[in-house]
Amino acid sequence: MQLTHLDQKGQAAMVDVGGKASTNRVAVAAGEIRMRPETLSLIMAGDMKKGDVLGTARVAGIMAAKRTHELIPLCHPLLLTKIGVDFEIDEANSCIRIQAMVKNNGQTGVEMEALTAVSVAALTIYDMAKAVERTMVIGDIRLLYKSGGKSGVFRREEP
Q1: Please, which of 70, 89, 140, 146 could form a disulfide with 27 given CB 3.0 to 4.6 Å?
Q2: Strand 80-90 to strand 23-34: parallel, antiparallel, or no bridges (unpaired)?
Q3: Burial of 145 per CB tally in 10 Å (0-12, 13-18, 19+)
Q4: Annotated catalytic, 127?
Q5: SS3 at position 63
Q6: What tens digit of pLDDT does each residue of 62-100 get?
Q7: Cα dihedral angle (89, 30, 103, 74), rounded to 10 degrees?
């Protein structure tokens, strides 16, 4: 197996996707942010001083997906056709689960865009809640699913 972002000399290089066929592509990524129950309660009640935490995090995740090529040096700028960012409150484990879905029709996949959306949504939650808790933990960011392109479908088997 060979890394695709290295040239013949082993230097970083952007992959040439010019000869690849355009296909419908989808990627789904997930992650979470853990916090104290009191912090989660404040977020759920809408009582954070900075405002609507999840609404702001959703918009931040969408914006981040659209700008992934500006953040990750070797990513291509893409015309994205759909971005969704959703949250699941897990009171039992005192965390917010984040899931992002990104679609396009193009010559390269949207995995990095979905992963970036999840990451920035989590960071936004942290930023908006850090006044009441700085011990929150962001983690378990991973690709769950991708389809399209020559490599076909990937589906993570979750326990």
Answers
A1: 146
A2: unpaired
A3: middle
A4: yes
A5: helix
A6: 999 999 999 998 899 999 999 999 999 999 999 999 999
A7: 140
Cα–Cα distance, 7 to 125 (Å, whole number): 38
- How far, in Å, CA of 148 to CA of 153, rounded? 7
The token pair that represents 78 in the structure block: 């893409």
Please tell me whether the overall predicted TM-score, pTM, comes out greater than 0.90 for this model. Answer: yes
Tokens of 4: 């695709």
Compute the distance between CA of residue 107 and CA of residue 67 in angstroms, rounded to an integer: 17
Marked catalytic residue, from 16, 52, 127, 140: 127
Amino acid letter, residue 120? V
Please give the Cα distance from 22 to 15 (Å, whole number).
Answer: 15
Q: Which of 11-20, 53-62, 78-87, 135-144 has the lowest mean pLDDT?
A: 11-20
